[in-house]
What does this fold into?
Amino acid sequence: MDKYNFFHGIAEELSLGALTAPAERVTGGYLHEMYKLETASGKYAVKLLNPVIMKRPDVFENYRRAELLEKELCENKIPVVPAMEINGCKMQCKDGQYFYVFHWIEGKALAWDEIKAEHCREAGALLARIHKIRQVKEPSDIKEICADWDFYVTAADTECREIAGELEKNRDLLYYCQEQYNSALRLLPPVSCICDGDMDCKNVLWTDGKPVIIDLECLDYGNPLSEMFQLGLSWSGGTVCSMDYESLNAFISAYKKEYGDLNPDWNAIYGIGFSWLDWLEYNVKRALRIECGSEEERELGIGQVHETFQRIIYYHTIKDELLKQLSN
It folds into this structure.
């Protein structure tokens, strides 16, 4: 795709104003591409949706649901950056490329080593506010992970040697963690609510010390305890394999104060922390060219396979200490 003509074209067609500088690629995302546009009328962020993702059979229904939930968050004064509605639509399309446009905001996404307990406290309370908007006393439709790791082990041996050894070495661990995750899913309390789906630190910008959520296309209905636990682990260092239990306690305590105590059985739901398996499988597919649109994306997938393995192995090793800290 000719990006130069593409961005000039959408600026004109969507009445954003003439470009005053070349479109600038913004780093940070692992699925889609984000660009900063400066025009005569202001600054915008344009998210180009991954063409491979857009081929999935339920993708438009999922995005439409997320758009409706995004409006609901705005109505409830949750600090978010919603996609702009232009010509009656949020999702736009030009030359077969689907995308969203946002007003650009000046904010900073914290690096992992910049996150302190006070940030976790703010994030936990904000997540609770989202979960409180609307709830239904019925099980959420979270799918079990049923990856055929043996298939990927065999395929990688011929199609991607870069990940073959890691998959083979950890084959038994993968099936163990998958069962742990699925068992924990079955023990979650039967309640559904609006869930962000991707509120890790890269998708929260800080302006004047306050959080603003971006990248809301993963909004959906889910289980509040599951998302709270996953994000608590992420914000307190699980993603970089360096847990800070003070930060984890700050996240969970602030969540409980805003939402109410869910009275979790931490040992029963410990396996929820292996939700990284879903991301691992997706990136294995990228590496094997099963679900991949370019060589750049394949290389990204290989890198994410290595990083995600580290997280899964790390989480497996900290079980005793984690449960001890959670029970205090």
User: Anything to note?
Assistant: The chain has two domains: 3-104, 112-327.
